[in-house]
Amino acid sequence: MLLRSRSLKSALLAAALCAGMTVSATAHTEAPAGGPKPEHFVKYRQQVFNLIRWNFGPMAATVKGQAPYDSARFATQAARVAALAPMVAEGFHPSTKGAKKTEAKDDIYTNTAEFNRLAKDLETASANLARVAQTGKMDQIKPAFMATGKACGACHDKFKTEDHHD
Ligand code: ASC
């Protein structure tokens, strides 16, 4: 449909904005209507964590000198972690508060600002690691890697019931 009328366009825009506001205002602890159920959010975030661990583990072994350093492989793993990091917070929908089969503390949903800050720290640290990994210089990579691990741990300390460090 071609909208010629300026007022009609702005009326539609206002209606769309209103609809958006209604959605965000009602998105408390209930699962999104017609959207993922709480257990799906839990599964999603656990899969994200599995993928992060899958890529982060071998990097840890390399940084510790327990595995040979392959710069291309390392850079790929770092890029993957940086791509996955922004998906973490997405999995902690308020509807998952009180969910079973999770190690996530419900504090996440009462202390959301802190949780989001820590999640953002992981995004920042992992993006930096991915950038530095491109240099192939282990003396620069190592501190960037440690900072990323620290960001993982900072959130686990606060919001994870048990950290197996696996
Ligand atoms: C890992 C892993 C974590 C983090 C964390 C860092 O390799 O599995 O959960 O690093 O131990 O503090």
**What number of domains?**
1
Category from helices, strands and their pairing: mainly alpha
The amount of helix comes to 55-70%
Number of helices: 5
Biggest sheet record: none
Q: What is the terminal-to-terminal distance? A: 55 Å
Q: Spell out the helices and strands N to C.
A: HHHHH
- Report the count of strand segments: 0
Low-confidence runs of at least 5 consecutive residues: 16-27
CATH class placement = Mainly Alpha
Q: State mean pLDDT (0 to 100 scale).
A: 87
CATH architecture: Up-down Bundle
How much of the sequence lies in strands comes to: under 5%
CATH topology: Four Helix Bundle (Hemerythrin (Met), subunit A)
What binds here, in terms of ligands, is: ascorbic acid
The whole-angstrom Rg is 20 Å
Shape: elongated
CATH homology superfamily: Cytochrome c/b562
Properties at a glance:
Four Helix Bundle (Hemerythrin (Met), subunit A), 166 residues, 5 helices, elongated, 0% strand, mainly alpha, binds ascorbic acid
Q: Could you explain the architecture of this structure?
A:
The protein is mostly helical. It has one domain (38-93, 105-166): Cytochrome c/b562 (Four Helix Bundle (Hemerythrin (Met), subunit A)). It is 66% helix and 0% strand. It is built from five helices and no strands.
